[in-house]
Amino acid sequence: MNNVLLIARRELQAYLRTMLGYIIVATMLFILGVLFNAWAMSGTAKKSAEIIADFFTLASGCTLVTSAVLGMPLLAKEREKGTIQLLFSAPLRDWEIIVGKYLSALAFLTVFLATSFYMPVLVMAYGKVSAGHLAAGYLGLVLVGSVGAAFGTFSSALTKNQLVAVVISLVMVIALTVFWFLARITDRPLTDAVQSMAWYAHFTPFGQGLVHLKHVVYFVLVTFVALFAATRVLEARRWA
Amino acid sequence: MISVEGLTKYYGERPAIKDLAFQIAKGEVIGFLGLNGAGKSTTLKVLGCVLAPTSGKVTVDGYDVGENPHEIRKRIGYLPDTPPVYDEMTVGGYLDFVARLRGVKASDARARVKAAEAKTSLTEWDDAPIFSLSHGYRQRVGVAQALVHNPQLLILDEPTGGLDPVQIVEMRELIKKLKGEHTILLSSHILPEISQICDRLLIIHDGQIVAQGTEDQLAAAAGAREGGTIDVEVQGPAQKAVDAAKTVKQVSAVEVTPIDAQRVSLRIQASADVRPEVVRALVQANVDVFKVAKSLGRLESIFMKFTQETEAA
Asked: Which class is B226-312 in CATH?
């Protein structure tokens, strides 16, 4: 556990001291802001709760992309620069490296989540929004971010080219999103199966202020599978 | 300390090292000598538990590389061919991170970092971000990270790679200082640097050890089968010089290369080192001698000899 925190702390410092993370967060924050203004705030008079639900819909997509892109340098850069040799020659287990890296991306994601908070605060100032609704929504965003960070870590383990890593991780995000559209054109019972794989179907309740254990389990499970796969990839790297 | 038997490593279909076997005792300083691609780095990576071997038995300090890699990792410091440094960290911060990774307690880490910095003359660079360092200093940071946890075994892959002559001398002095405290394995393809620091040399060629021993042993082994090639720079009529050189009975061939209008260079093949005899003959023939040298340094000739022999076989 100690090793996990060591890795996570170093990696978080790397995010804080280099431009990449800030650029990703700033870009995505800008996109989210524009979408929020154009979609959630527009149209005829809405209830505050509806605006907040719309905000979380937009924010969940942005969070997923942000976290998936943030994972880009985690292992790819280590291999590109040769620093992975340091980690390999140290008494560390592969899962400790993977989990440490994943946690750092998740920790840096809080910069994005924190800076997005002004939007619901504005709604709160002029309307009626319950703190519970926001808490549930942000818990959902953290869970979505966890899946994205795990995808980012996995794809970063696959290659030493950061650009390839980010493409793979975005493809994974798209694949997990496509299930949602697929569910709309399939018949029962296939619909249920496809629907249950789509991340967005599991996020919607959070956006409405509801926390169901089964949806929490979904995000935790996907995170676990991605991190497990990343660990196996790293293990295989020791042979090449 | 280290025992290697039948070590083989394949990259895909291609063997990088084939059936290596050697023993290394505690406290020895061993030089792995070989051309690029000979298998030096692969061997060191396996010993450093960075790379899993395809087959063979490797034990370090009694622990098997396959079964107990973590026990070995705690006992080694490893410098890969490029220093594994993070550009955005400071020297002190980086060394502290490595010390903690290697299992040094948080309370001891600072003292260890200070000691490693003192050994590698990095004390005043403690606060410097690594990206601001020159290649030579990065290499020093690389050595510092390998010894920050005070390991029994130091594995340095090409520690002098890409350094300028002054830095090479400094690195050599540094490694000499570390002698005695650690068992040290280092690799190089630059020959003279290795002879001065190492107790024993292992010459690797094409994934196999073609010779091992001290420099003298290797020179004796190579010399027994080898004549001497000497280069002589003379002024005067070339033909007169060649005739004079050929009067020495061990000389088998003389090759002439003009340098400028007056001077020529003679490459003389002989069955032994005949520098004194050749000079005497030239002087008696009234030829002015400007330079006499064995055509290759001692280690180079040993090295060339062993690698070419395997090539021919």
From this structure: alpha beta
